[in-house]
Structure formats: C-alpha cells, structure tokens
Amino acid sequence: MEKLLMKGNEAIAEAAIRAGCLRFYGYPITPQTEVSAYMSKKMPKVGGLFMQAESEIAAINMVYGSAAAGVRAMTSSSSPGISLKAEGISYIAGADLPCVVLNIVRGGPGLGGIQPAQSDYFQATKGLAHGDFQLVVLAPSSIQECVDLTYEAFDIADQYRMPVMLIGDGMLGQMMEPVTFPEEYKGRDLPEKTWATNGTQMKRKHNVVNSLYIEPNELEKLVVERYKKYDYIKETEVKYETENIKDADVVLVAYGTIARIAKSAMQKARNEGIKVGLIRPITLWPFPEKIISETAKKAKSFLAVEMSMGQMVEDVRLAVNGQADVHFYGRTGGVIPTPDEVYNKIIEIAGGAK
After folding, report:
1. What residue spans define the domains of the chain?
2. Is 314 exposed, middle or buried (0-12, 13-18, 19+ CB in 10 A)?
3. Which residues of the chain have pLDDT under 70?
4. Considering the domain 240-350 in this protein, what is its CATH number?
5. For the segment 202-227, what is each residue's pLDDT rounded down to a tens digit?
6. How far apart are CA 206 and CA 181, in angstroms?
7. N or C end of the chain: smaller count of CB under 10 Å?
8. 214: left (phi over 0), alpha (psi -120 to 50) or beta
C-alpha cells in the first residue's frame, strides 16, 4: 500500500472525500484553513460540492440541509469558529441528522492565538450548545489516525444519526507524516436512509426533518429515546489505547498529540525504574471511564497531561472515584509541554527516581 507524506489537515480532507463526503461547507480560520483549500480543489473532481460560506453560522446550516437530504456532509473550523457553529450543531442533533465536524483547536479564550491547544475539551464533551444532546468525539494522535478516524466518524454518524466531532490540536493539523489510505473501504453495515428528504419518487409520504416540538411530552419522549441511544454508544463505541498499565504505580492520561509527549516521558521514567503507564482516550465522548476505574484499583497515582488549565482531568477524577490520587500537569495559551516537563512531574509524584 502506497505511503503518502501529508499534512494533517489535508489528510483529513482526503480521507473525508474517500469516505464518501460529497458536501463540504467551510470558512477560513487558522490553523485548519488547509482543509477548505484542499476541498475546494478536490470536491469538484469527485462530483461533490465545496462552498466557502459567508460565515461559520451559514456553513453549519448548509451542513444541516445536506445532511437532511441524506448526503454525507462535513464542516471544519477552529475553536472560536466552532462556537459560532454551536447553535446549528444543536439543531442537527435535535433533528437526528448525521454529519462530521472537525475542530483543529487553537488557544483561547476569545480570539486567543493560533498555536495548538486542547482547551476545547469541555466544549466538545459537555457544553457545546443548548439542550440535552451529545456528540461522539474522536481524538486522533497521529496523521494516520486522523485518516482512520475520519472514515470511522462518517460511519458512526450514519449509524446513530448524530453529529460526530473529530478534534485535534494545531500541531496535528499542521504536522506532516506518512499515511496510507485503504484501497477499498468497506466500513460498517449501515441502515438505509429512509428518513432523508431526497424526493419521494411518488412512492412514499414526504419526510419531514425538524427539531421543533411544541408539545413538552412529545419532546421529552424524543430526548429520552435519544439518551437510550447514547447509553448504547457508551457500551459499544469507547476507544482507547493503553501501555504499561498492568504494573504501573503512576498512570498518565493524555489524548491527541500530548499523548505522544506523555509516552516519551513515560519511557524515560521507565528507564529510571519508575513504573509508569499510559491510558490514551481515543473517544473523548464516550470517555473510557471503565478502564481508568479498573486501573485505579492497582495504581497509586494518575497524572492527567493536557494543553489546557485542566479539563479532561475532571473526567479522570470522576472515573478514579477516590481510589487513587489524581494529579494534573498542563500548559495553555498555545504553549506545548515538553517530555522533560512531564517527566519532572512524574518524578515529583513518584517521590523521586528509584
């Protein structure tokens, strides 16, 4: 299988096209603008449509329309742009429509800066927009995983009729690594989109896509049913990677590119005789709480490492549930932690090198 050297943003765009995305609506913002640029060149060649909308708000509502027609649709942005898309994402969730939203995170709040960050964790997993709903949130840590999870994102969206977010930091969007694309992607066995507003051909009643329900009991029933689906997703779609956790005294928890930095620190500590392991959440929602809870029965301490002031660490604390100490190390504003900084925090927690 041929390997291609690609930038993360462009690899995601290419994977989306190969996964059957035929509608892309975007608006430029650093550090994800290459996604739109790539789509603008490639979409017309595959019979798809690229449109640079007049705003982020317009872009997400265009996604709503295409998704309602049963077409695989996608938008991408970065931090403040995702905030502008939030209302539309809530409408899409409320209408039970599938789509993929990419967030290449930059430092904030406000306009912040253009450097990498992970400070949108709360937004993605807990408070993206109004109402009772969730997104499946996938967090790749390499360019190859960007490709693989882009395919997966479209399948998950279609299987469960819900928006899926692919989240990465600015490093992931801008770095280059060799990747491979499957020659033939089979994917999941997905249900037919009998709900789509794609024309009746005079063979069925009109489909209606809507998120407005005036009758409270009707709306409550729909939301409760949606949460039954979410419970099923929590049982079946959790993804994570572990390393050296069986005998670990200190367990690092990190996602995305920071997990790679944490892994380097873990290896250095292991060389010093300190038993350190790593749990890397791949789904931020649903969060891999069970493996963390099980590991907490044996480990002495956990260390959440993030490019934020501490957001995922709250989910780590909930999963550990008092069974072990939970510590945090983070940098923010676009500052990237170094392996040595994480190693020094490990030494502090472990009480010095053994």
Report:
1. 4-192+204-236, 240-350
2. middle
3. 352-354
4. 3.40.50.920
5. 778 899 999 999 999 999 999 999 99
6. 38
7. N
8. alpha
